[in-house]
Amino acid sequence: MSAARPLYLDYAATTPVDPAVAAAMSGCLTAGGDFGNPSSAHALGSVAAARIAQARAQVAALLGAAADEIVFTSGATESDNLAILGVARANADRGRHVLTARTEHKAVLDPCKRLEKEGFSVTYLTPGRSGLIEPAAFAAALRPDTVLASIMYANNEIGVLQDLAGIGAACRERGIPLHSDCAQAAGKVPLDVHALPVDFVSITAHKIYGPKGVGALYVREGARGLLQPLMYGGGQERSLRPGTLATHQIVGFGVACELAARELPAEGLRLAALRERLWSGLETLGGTHLNGAGAPRLPGILNVSFEGVEGESLVTGLTGLAVSTGAACNSVSPDPSYVLRALGRDTQLAQSSLRFSLGRFSVAADVDLALSAVRAEVRRLRALSPAAGGSAGEGFGPAHGSGGGATVSGEAGGPGQESWVRFHLQVADDIVKDARFKAFGCPHTMDVAAWLCGELRGRRRAALIPGTPATWAATRGVPVEKLGRLLVVEDALRACLSHWP
Prior knowledge:
The strands form 4 sheets. A 7-stranded mixed β-sheet has the order 2-8-7-6-5-3-4, with helices on both faces. A 3-stranded antiparallel β-sheet has the order 9-10-12. The protein starts with 6 loop residues before the first strand and ends with a helix. Helix content is 38%, strand content 16%. Helix 4 (106-117) links the parallel strand 3 (97-101) and strand 4 (121-125). The chain has 501 residues and is an alpha/beta fold. Helix 13 crosses helix 14.
């Protein structure tokens, strides 16, 4: 029997395909469906082209755009690259300065880094503690040689909504094109690109219950001349994005947009209520920080930092929940969230943060289940932390042996560091009778410390340390990049030796 599926609270990473979307897609795949190449001149091609046209209109309607302002891509990452690299390179003769923010998605930051290698100058604005960029600060950073600004509407980690109207107004006054990554905002909050002073907008299907692998770039009418393609061949999408159109994905994207537009008003209110229910419950733990507090935010994203716990250990302990410590594209990195660091969170708080993202299939019972699990795990990890204090001999039974007994303690690391380990050893007759630990650290640090407590029992002082961090890592399956953290565990044991009477 398979293990129970975890409760999904990671809708900001991706969403399941809506059944209505899947049904529409399946009608474009097989010989009995609308599988033709939409560029073909025959009847099957014409039918596929008509399906593409319908989907283009559906996507445009979600954004308040005209259908011919929609360019299909493989997703928001490609759309971001097309807008940023395409506009900057096409206008390099007018200037070589780009303005963006430190809290942008990597799909914006990395193209900007690429432009820097090509001789462009990029300014990365730092938001206020709430995550907001003030339009006045944005306007002050614009320069005569600025050829593009890129500011996301809704942040993918903390859900903060930027003042696109104010930011865009500053761009329009100076004739500077504005791009916005709206992958998280589209379908979640009202978005009218004709009412906003934006020129390019990136969206993707898989954030709104559509398929992965398809997205779009809104290109304002009149802004097409500011943009050059990144690829060539075929002439599709007005030569901005060549290649055979993926009819089934685009059709699914269109249906997803239509569903999102229909459900948006009521769904926004419902998710905001669930979000507040979740925060109210987490706040009672104490030592919790709402990231993005004081700023307008997406209804479905809640990002919370927990004092006294390590984020990776918290996520690992929440086996019944599918949540994240930040953006999915950064989940393999051991570094703290650059978004939270930009907001002024210290390294430890940034690392001990969870992003809960609610969606179409989330209900109140899910929130209550998540609250129960998170409360229990936060309390468990806090109790295990050396910061929790407690007697050195706490949990030990009476020492045995004719030589009497003593408790030996040693620790390494400390508050504010990525690892902090403390061992308490009950010793008698020069032998470890029992061992306990407290630790703040990643799951591998916690696991090795707990395993060593079993290995230490019965060992004499002269042979206290069983092996080396390298052998522990091999025995317990610790990734090589975590080996340095085991040195803290070893140092704590050496500290016990130095304190052994």
